[in-house]
Amino acid sequence: MTTVGADDTEKNIRSIQELVNAGLQRVPAVYIRPVQERARCTSAPNSITNVRDHQLPSVPLISLSSSSRQLLQQVTHACSHWGIFQVIDHEVPISLQNQLWSATCHFFSLPTKTKLELISQDPSCPLLFSTGFFSHEKVKEWKDTLGFKPNASMNQELLPYFLRGPMLNFHKKMKVLAHKLCEAICTTLALDCKGFCDSQLSRETMGFNYYPTCPDPDLTFGLSSHSDFGSLTIIMQDEVQGLQVRKGNAWIDVVPIPNSFIVLLGDQVEILTNGYYKSVEHRVVTNTMKPRMSIACFYAPNEHEHVKPLNQFVTRGCPTMYKETKFGDYLKHGFNRGLNGKSNLEFSS
Ligand SMILES: O=C(O)CCC(=O)C(=O)O
Ligand SMILES: [Fe+2]
């Protein structure tokens, strides 16, 4: 087994997966979190309970084939107490999910050089491969990501042949699911569904995440604590546990359930509802045993859209908590600042 020393790995890092496959035995310095930010640290001033130490509630599980009354009750509960739920009976064919998993596994099994060759430099190519979350982040995340940003003028021919079909078909099915979920959420808020969903789901992106095994999971995160910048995120995760959500003072594991999706409320829902529904803080921890993969579909307003609390959520007893902000500026601020809990909401405060 080759040993890759920390010093070899700090320049030009393109793929953490490649370093791990080459036998990396220590976490390189650029991936090491300051002590107070680590997952298991109990001496941090605002330290929160380690999820494994206590008997904690689990993330709500909702069947989309429930009666509409039951469905709305469950969505109301999940959105007002959690900002996250898992759904089953969603009508996204398991065969399509499996096709996309196989294609994604194949992509991540390729050498970094081949991965990069598959991603065209043509500006109309909607794909981007990266390590960590941002190219300029101070401490890197323990993950590699293939980002997909579909748009009307993208050249589909530039998508790698083995990913093209499953990716585009899955993206189409997930849009239908996103609308269904958004309509349920709107109904619980007594809002005009069409206008709300059309604007909040108009910017679509997908992230294919690969979290390699880590020699010392206590030192690093697959993805550090954050809330999503957009409105709604739907995640398909494999059978390897790693995603955790913050509930009060505890981090709770989102336990993998076969043929389910995870639904998360993002910051724009919190802004529009003036904090009535809140975005959920979440993170991904790594492990020494098995790599983890997830596919996240992000829905958000267009970048030119201005977002502010809707009138019906602003009352004398509940004055406006957020100022009007252009979503493009919110996004830019978040990307420049990096992931840090729910702090990006301060930009709109
Ligand atoms: O990998 C996951 O389960 C979570 C991914 C995530 O939170 C994100 O990409 O924003
Ligand atoms: Fe996220």
TrEMBL record:
Signal as UniProt keyword: no
Gene3D superfamilies given in the database record: B-lactam Antibiotic, Isopenicillin N Synthase, Chain
Domain Fe2OG dioxygenase residues, every copy: 202-301
Gene Ontology terms, MF aspect: metal ion binding; oxidoreductase activity
InterPro entries the UniProt entry points to: DIOX_N, IPNS-like_FE2OG_OXY, IPNS-like_sf, Oxoglu/Fe-dep_dioxygenase_dom, Plant_2OG-oxidoreductases
Membrane spanning stretches: none
Keywords: Iron, Metal-binding, Oxidoreductase
Oxidoreductase keyword on record: yes
Pfam families: 2OG-FeII_Oxy, DIOX_N
Similarity remark: Belongs to the iron/ascorbate-dependent oxidoreductase family.
Protein name: Fe2OG dioxygenase domain-containing protein
UniProt source species: Adiantum capillus-veneris (Maidenhair fern)
